[in-house]
């Protein structure tokens, strides 16, 4: 619900449990008043804020502008034709729109409730429209800004935040989700320091280093209680999220990274920022995550795969089984083994196209290598289908190898700065996706591939960050558009893909999880989490990922031991627990398995088929954070059913209280763990909630435990 009081110039956004308040002061400044627990009481502005001579630095502002007394580190940065970079944004009006407006060319949470539009005006003819949409059911508020040049002279935007939140308190912790290849999204928590702290990317994609999402929380906030605010960008390119602690409080600003960004606005032109998603929860980090999970499932995913109760295929991906070395016979043997293990879909990963026997060549030439696939992709697809499996394939559409026919034909299609060496990473360049003609060339190849046979699944990978960012299609004074236009081009192509192939299951991937964000989830209902499938490391990677993203979108596969990335060994159950907590699939050479070993995998596939809808739609409870082991549960919203997972050192005989267990019901627990296969127990809900579920004490290298709980009465 939105309260738009234009008489008092007070504005409030209400979700089921939260409230966000703003007001315009006597000087026309739009002040941020409150974001927290639901209340109908308007917050009164403290007396110093009514003082017309008040120093703007002390004011909690809704969309701060630089150069006229606000000495915070500026984010909004319009540059006028006289070279000045100041702005004074004055309140000019507010209105409620019954329906959410679409952001042109950008992903967004959708099917929300009302939208509040607040207009701010700079006297030199710039209008900023702040848009807030309320998703009451999941305590989500989204915001974005549209900047319009209403004057007669050009203006260049050198920084445009999607949103700014001014907190009146200084004692907040900041949690960021950082890492590297094979170690993505590890949470780091610490007090917000005086001055500026920021995370971001200048690599054109978010990269492995930082996820475009942060949590601000009370220092005493825990998994289950305490004030937590989550902020996440719905964007897949360069970004910056910065905190600035001053004497007045903490300002958090989020948006496109200003480096490499300069967007000229001719008179009459507009620029729309990507969306910023906000959640507040007083129920700790777990409560905050559950709001984001509901929001992703109900308001971000789209199309056929949005129905999470419908079965999702169990896939086998060929990468760790074959890498670049295979022929059709090997693939078919692997597919047969996958079928025996219970898989539904076979994915042919990298290495299938002309001359691609290593990572040094051929990206951009999306035609089958006849030496490996004598009857091309359609021939392989036909044979895979004859085995009773669906077929999927890998592509890296944004990439071009210097050694490729595409590069020989169109060297100018690669991003490169004239006169400089073009940087190769993984022996490849990046295509200039800001250019429509380049995208069209790739689109023609993609559609030829996807129209050639029934492809059910597509893995869209990108294996490097951007460098040498310069476009041959734009003049010198417009090069500051390239990074963002690249992202818009990526979105446009993925939108075309989902429009033309509505049944295709698209999985995004970026050398593991370097582009795991809300923007990509608008197009693909799952994203590959990490190239690291080690059961121990996955505990941290998937734990960190789960702060904003629900388990059902996390690409997770059961792989071999010793693990190809870490060399470590883990039990079948621990590896299965990690994979079953995500999209579930296999990624190992099952041709090396005996029929008996393949049979041993069946109970887990059966488990997935039996409980897949619960795993995708259920509510996540992080029971023990990762530290040599972890435990977590996915429960039906009414607590009638749940799956509990545990692995590593938490399997020491302890009992785990289950917050979702309903006291007045009895539960039947069916276990899946070494030595406990087929074991069932009965527990009262009260006992599970108070004393906890007794975990077995299991020894050995990374043990694992899975348990399905079902209410009996
Ligand atoms: C990186 C991905 O994360 C892997 O799963 C695999 O697809 C390789 N690229 C292929 O080059």
Describe the 3D structure:
The structure is a single chain. The protein is α+β, with helices and mostly antiparallel strands. The protein has 3 domains: 2-299, alpha-galactosidase from lactobacil brevis (Beta-galactosidase, Chain A, domain 5), CATH 2.70.98.60; 305-528, TIM Barrel, CATH 3.20.20.70; 622-711, Immunoglobulin-like (Sandwich), CATH 2.60.40. Helices cover 20% and strands 30% of the residues. The protein has 13 helices and 40 strands. Strand 37 (666-672) and strand 38 form a beta hairpin. Helix 10 runs parallel beside helix 11 (572-580). It starts with a strand and ends with a strand. The model has no long low-confidence stretch (mean pLDDT 96). Bound molecules: (2R,3S,4R,5S)-2-(hydroxymethyl)piperidine-3,4,5-triol.
List the defining traits of the structure above.
713 residues; alpha+beta; Beta-galactosidase, Chain A, domain 5; TIM Barrel; Immunoglobulin-like; 3 domains; 10-stranded antiparallel sheet; 9-stranded parallel sheet; 13 helices; globular; binds (2R,3S,4R,5S)-2-(hydroxymethyl)piperidine-3,4,5-triol
């Amino acid at each position: 619900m939105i309260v738009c009081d234009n008489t008092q110039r007070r504005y409030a956004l209400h979700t089921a449990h939260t409230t966000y308040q703003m007001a315009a002061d006597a000087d026309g400044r739009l002040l941020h008043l409150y974001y927290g627990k639901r209340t109908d009481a308007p917050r009164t502005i403290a007396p110093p804020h009514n003082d017309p001579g008040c120093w703007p630095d002390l004011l909690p502002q809704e969309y701060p502008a630089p150069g006229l007394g606000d000495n915070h580190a500026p984010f909004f940065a319009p540059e006028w034709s006289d070279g000045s970079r100041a702005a004074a944004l004055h309140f000019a009006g507010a209105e409620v729109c019954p329906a959410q407006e679409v952001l042109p060319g950008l992903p967004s949470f959708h099917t929300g409730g009302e939208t509040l539009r607040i207009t701010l005006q700079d006297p030199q003819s710039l209008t900023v429209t702040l848009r807030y949409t309320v998703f009451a059911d999941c305590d989500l508020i989204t915001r974005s800004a549209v900047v319009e040049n209403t004057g007669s002279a050009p203006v260049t935007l050198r920084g445009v935040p999607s949103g700014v939140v001014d907190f009146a308190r200084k004692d907040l912790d900041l949690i960021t989700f950082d890492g590297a290849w094979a170690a993505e999204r590890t949470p780091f928590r610490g007090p917000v320091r005086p001055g500026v702290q920021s995370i971001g990317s200048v690599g054109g994609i978010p990269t492995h280093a930082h996820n475009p999402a942060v949590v601000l929380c009370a220092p005493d906030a825990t998994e289950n209680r305490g004030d937590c605010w989550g902020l996440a960008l719905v964007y897949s390119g360069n970004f910056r999220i910065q905190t600035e602690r001053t004497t007045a409080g903490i300002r958090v600003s989020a948006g496109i990274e200003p480096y490499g960004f300069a967007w000229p606005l001719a008179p009459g032109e507009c620029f729309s920022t990507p969306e910023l998603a906000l959640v507040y929860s007083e129920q700790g980090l777990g409560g905050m995550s559950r709001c984001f999970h509901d929001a992703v499932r109900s308001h971000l995913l789209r199309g056929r795969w949005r129905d999470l109760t419908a079965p999702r295929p169990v896939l086998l991906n060929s990468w760790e089984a074959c890498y670049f070395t295979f022929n059709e016979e090997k693939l078919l043997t692997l597919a047969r083994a996958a079928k025996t293990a219970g898989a539904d879909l076979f994915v042919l990963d990298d290495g299938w196209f002309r001359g691609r026997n290593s990572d040094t060549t051929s990206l951009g030439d999306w035609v089958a290598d006849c030496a490996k696939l004598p009857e091309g992709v359609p021939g392989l697809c036909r044979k895979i289908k004859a085995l009773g499996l669906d077929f999927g394939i890998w592509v890296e559409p944004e990439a071009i190898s210097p050694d490729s026919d595409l590069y020989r034909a169109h060297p100018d299609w690669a991003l490169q700065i004239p006169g400089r060496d073009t940087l190769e990473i993984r022996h490849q360049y990046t295509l200039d996706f800001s250019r429509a003609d380049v995208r069209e060339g790739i689109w023609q190849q993609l559609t030829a591939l996807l129209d050639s046979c029934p492809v059910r699944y597509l893995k869209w990978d990108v294996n490097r960050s951007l460098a040498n960012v310069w476009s041959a299609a734009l003049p010198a004074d417009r090069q500051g558009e390239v990074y963002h236009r690249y992202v818009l081009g990526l979105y446009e192509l993925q939108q075309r893909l989902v429009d033309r192939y509505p049944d295709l299951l698209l999985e995004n991937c970026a050398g593991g999880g370097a582009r795991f964000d809300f923007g990509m989830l608008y197009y693909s209902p799952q994203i590959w989490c990490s190239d690291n499938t080690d059961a121990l490391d996955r505990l941290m990677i998937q734990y960190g990922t789960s702060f904003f993203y629900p388990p059902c979108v996390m690409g997770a596969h059961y792989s071999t031991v010793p693990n190809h990335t870490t060399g470590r060994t883990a039990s079948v159950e621990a590896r299965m627990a990690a994979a079953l907590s995500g999209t579930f699939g296999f990624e190992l050479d099952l041709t090396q398995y005996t029929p008996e070993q393949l049979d041993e995998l069946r109970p887990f596939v059966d488990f997935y088929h039996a409980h897949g809808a619960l795993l995708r739609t259920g509510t996540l409870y992080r029971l023990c954070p990762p530290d040599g082991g972890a435990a977590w549960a996915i429960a039906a919203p009414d607590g009638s059913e749940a799956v509990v997972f545990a692995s590593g050192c938490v399997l020491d005989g302890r009992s785990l209280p289950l917050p979702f267990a309903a006291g007045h019901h009895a539960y039947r627990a069916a276990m899946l763990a070494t030595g406990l296969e087929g074991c069932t127990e009965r527990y009262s809900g009260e006992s599970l909630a108070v004393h906890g579920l007794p975990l077995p004490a299991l020894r050995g290298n990374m043990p694992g435990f899975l348990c399905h709980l079902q209410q009996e009465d």
